[in-house]
């Protein structure tokens, strides 16, 4: 009889605990005291009354979609794979199945099911276990809110799932609040949107797509039953790894639905006889899924959201916005331009080549980024020569340290000189090599004449005016022009064109070699700078995001196009006229387009470690660089796209990449005209730089 007495005492303890959890505390009713145990229960009631009841429905993390300018999907990105849908977008089968297997009296009881608690209490008292089971769907929903709020922090998740009296009391208090503010249908809908179904699928819409490739509204009876059965143990009943357990659980759900009269026995038997019929769609998300080389642009968009104050005052606010998701991000990417760029960079430089090429295209007058890509695919597989470093942008935006730009910086020096009043007819006579002219930095510090500057060809000697010097890329001419213009004026012009620092975040080096492109810059930065020449002196900071719609359907604020007049139209158009000469009969002749006006400048750095071509039409400005990205070695003698490059120059290596990409992007587009400006007659040297 001693054993029997012990069971009675244990039953009394469990009854008091269950009473607290079950709902006698809800009405503030005094619990019957059972000796000292009763006093503990009264304390639990006091604890319950002191708990806050300011439960708020969470903003669920869900999928965001990134679109191109034509509405095509670039990629879906998410912290958790969830798409919130309304009740009418859920199959009635799945709603009924969930209630029948988890809480068949859901529509009859309040926040707590006293009958269910007493039933569970009896089983627990008999087995000697702890209070478990008997949680209503409302209580389960509240627990799921705690778990979802814990995110991916294992410790917080464990805390949210602890089966303690304190946790049960808190869930109960909030469950009461939920029942007061939401209808049963709303609670059920919220539950189906928040709960985890395994295989990285959160919410019934994502689960339906994951396991069957259908929307939640189209789930059949056996499909709905399988999903409802997963809720109890997503890993234990995972149909991908344990089909037998998943089918047994599904069939249990079907029998329950028949038992409660929501389907007929015949329907249940037919469904039980049906195979699981999985059509698994593995979880794929993020910029790595983008096609046509769009992964780098996709990642750049992510960086914009995480760094631009338009999306939140603090980094934490912007991170929370991205993690909550549910965003529809419409970008500036032109799919035709992107396809042409991707085809060109991957055809001219192979992914497996030691050197790589990168290219950006922007729209003059708006700053819209129309295309962005590189020869190596976006990803993390070294075996497939993938990378996540975006060679087009600064380190802060997911890029690397940039590249010396070579002579592509010379048009910026020319623009500063013209703005100062120096005429295109300005002539300098020099030999192949000369000492650097003395110059001053912006603080008045002197750079004395020291070292030599020389041309790339020993035949480039004599007197040159600005147009011929630009066409033939005469280094000695631009050293003199920079000295007469002033280093500070050149750096100010660069800043107006968005070049305020180097790609790695270091200060721009305002030194004499600046005119030869000694600073490390990016294709996106250079394309945006040249776009100001095409736009008659108006510079626009590059923009990637056109609009963003939140999960509630409301438009979010996005970064506004920052455009300003940075030089006179006369200066810009004069530079354009000189750069037209570069592609007509200068160093960029292999880059020029034959069916429309184009202008641009070549660049080749010391020992041909990098080669550039930056140019534009009235519709597009683009910059292309080819460089060894490991430990930059000379490109001369390296194998690129199956051929050994004997001598690498901007016009012969980067130029054709630019030509094919921009030409393809503009195929079928009516040709615009670049400005016509009368220039002084150019001097024709005996030999031209390749």
From TrEMBL:
<dbReference type="InterPro" id="IPR012338">
    <property type="entry name" value="Beta-lactam/transpept-like"/>
</dbReference>
<feature type="domain" description="Penicillin-binding protein transpeptidase">
    <location>
        <begin position="361"/>
        <end position="647"/>
    </location>
</feature>
<keyword id="KW-0328">Glycosyltransferase</keyword>
<dbReference type="InterPro" id="IPR023346">
    <property type="entry name" value="Lysozyme-like_dom_sf"/>
</dbReference>
<protein>
    <submittedName>
        <fullName>Membrane peptidoglycan carboxypeptidase</fullName>
    </submittedName>
</protein>
<dbReference type="Pfam" id="PF00905">
    <property type="entry name" value="Transpeptidase"/>
</dbReference>
<dbReference type="InterPro" id="IPR050396">
    <property type="entry name" value="Glycosyltr_51/Transpeptidase"/>
</dbReference>
<feature type="region of interest" description="Disordered">
    <location>
        <begin position="586"/>
        <end position="606"/>
    </location>
</feature>
<dbReference type="InterPro" id="IPR036950">
    <property type="entry name" value="PBP_transglycosylase"/>
</dbReference>
<keyword id="KW-0511">Multifunctional enzyme</keyword>
<feature type="domain" description="Glycosyl transferase family 51">
    <location>
        <begin position="73"/>
        <end position="257"/>
    </location>
</feature>
<dbReference type="InterPro" id="IPR001264">
    <property type="entry name" value="Glyco_trans_51"/>
</dbReference>
<keyword id="KW-0121">Carboxypeptidase</keyword>
<keyword id="KW-0808">Transferase</keyword>
<keyword id="KW-0378">Hydrolase</keyword>
<keyword id="KW-0645">Protease</keyword>
<dbReference type="GO" id="GO:0004180">
    <property type="term" value="F:carboxypeptidase activity"/>
</dbReference>
<dbReference type="InterPro" id="IPR001460">
    <property type="entry name" value="PCN-bd_Tpept"/>
</dbReference>
<dbReference type="Pfam" id="PF00912">
    <property type="entry name" value="Transgly"/>
</dbReference>
């Amino acid at each position: 009889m001693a054993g029997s007495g012990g069971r009675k005492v244990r039953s009394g303890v469990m009854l008091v605990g269950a009473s607290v959890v079950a709902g006698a505390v809800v009405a503030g009713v005094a619990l019957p005291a059972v000796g000292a145990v009763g006093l503990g229960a009264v304390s639990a009631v006091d604890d319950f009354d002191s708990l806050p009841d300011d439960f708020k429905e969470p903003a669920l993390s869900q999928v965001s979609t990134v679109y191109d300018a034509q509405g095509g999907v670039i990629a879906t990105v998410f912290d958790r794979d969830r798409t919130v849908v309304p009740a009418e977008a859920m199959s009635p089968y799945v709603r009924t199945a969930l209630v029948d297997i988890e809480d068949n009296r859901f529509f009859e009881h309040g926040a707590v099911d006293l009958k269910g608690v007493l039933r569970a209490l009896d089983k627990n008292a008999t087995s000697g276990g702890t209070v478990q089971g008997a949680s209503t769907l409302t209580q389960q929903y509240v627990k799921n809110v705690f778990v979802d709020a814990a995110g991916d922090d294992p410790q917080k998740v464990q805390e949210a799932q602890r089966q303690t009296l304190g946790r049960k009391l808190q869930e109960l208090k909030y469950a009461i609040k939920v029942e007061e503010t939401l209808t049963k249908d709303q609670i059920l809908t919220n539950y189906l949107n928040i709960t985890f179904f395994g295989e990285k699928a959160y919410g019934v819409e994502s689960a339906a797509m994951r396991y069957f490739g259908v929307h939640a509204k189209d789930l059949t009876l056996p499909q709905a039953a399988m999903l409802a059965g997963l809720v109890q143990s997503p890993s234990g009943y995972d149909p991908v790894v344990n089909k037998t357990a998943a089918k047994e659980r599904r069939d249990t759900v079907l029998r329950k639905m028949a038992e409660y009269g929501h389907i007929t026995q015949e329907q249940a038997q037919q469904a039980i006889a049906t195979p699981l019929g999985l059509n698994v769609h593995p979880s794929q998300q993020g910029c790595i899924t983008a096609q046509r080389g769009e992964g780098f642009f996709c990642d750049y968009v992510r960086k914009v959201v995480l760094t631009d104050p338009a999306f939140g005052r603090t980094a934490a606010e912007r991170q929370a916005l991205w993690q909550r998701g549910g965003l529809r991000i419409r970008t500036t990417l032109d799919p035709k331009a992107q396809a042409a760029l991707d085809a060109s960079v991957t055809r001219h430089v192979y992914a497996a080549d030691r050197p790589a090429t990168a290219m950006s295209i922007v729209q003059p007058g708006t700053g819209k980024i129309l295309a962005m890509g590189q020869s190596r695919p976006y990803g993390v597989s070294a075996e497939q020569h993938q990378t996540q470093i975006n060679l087009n942008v600064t380190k802060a935006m997911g890029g690397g340290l940039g590249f010396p730009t070579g002579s592509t910086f010379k048009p910026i020096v020319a623009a500063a000189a013209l703005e100062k009043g120096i005429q295109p007819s300005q002539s300098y006579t020099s030999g192949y090599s000369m000492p650097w002219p003395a110059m001053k930095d912006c603080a008045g510090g002197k750079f004395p004449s020291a070292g030599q500057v020389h041309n790339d060809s020993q035949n480039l000697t004599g007197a040159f005016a600005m147009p011929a010097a630009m066409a033939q890329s005469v280094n000695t001419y631009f050293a003199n022009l920079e000295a007469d213009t002033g280093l500070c004026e050149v750096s100010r012009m660069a800043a107006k064109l968005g070049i305020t620092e180097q790609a790695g975040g270091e200060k721009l080096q305002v030194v004499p070699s600046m005119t030869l492109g000694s600073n490390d810059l990016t294709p996106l930065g250079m394309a945006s700078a040249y776009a100001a020449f095409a736009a008659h002196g108006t510079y626009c900071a590059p923009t990637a995001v056109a609009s963003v719609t939140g999960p509630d359907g409301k438009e979010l604020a996005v970064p506004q196009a920052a455009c300003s007049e940075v030089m006179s139209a006369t200066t810009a158009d004069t530079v354009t006229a000189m750069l037209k000469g570069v592609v007509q009969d200068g160093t960029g002749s292999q880059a020029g387009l034959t069916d429309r006006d184009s202008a641009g400048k070549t660049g080749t750095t010391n020992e041909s470690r990098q080669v550039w071509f930056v140019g534009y039409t009235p519709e597009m400005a683009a910059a292309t660089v080819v460089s060894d990205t490991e430990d930059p070695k000379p490109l001369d003698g390296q194998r690129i796209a199956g051929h050994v490059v004997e001598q690498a120059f901007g016009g012969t290596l980067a130029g054709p990449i630019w030509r094919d990409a921009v030409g393809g992007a503009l195929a079928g587009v009516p040709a615009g005209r670049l400005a016509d400006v009368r220039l002084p007659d150019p001097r024709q040297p005996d030999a031209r730089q390749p």
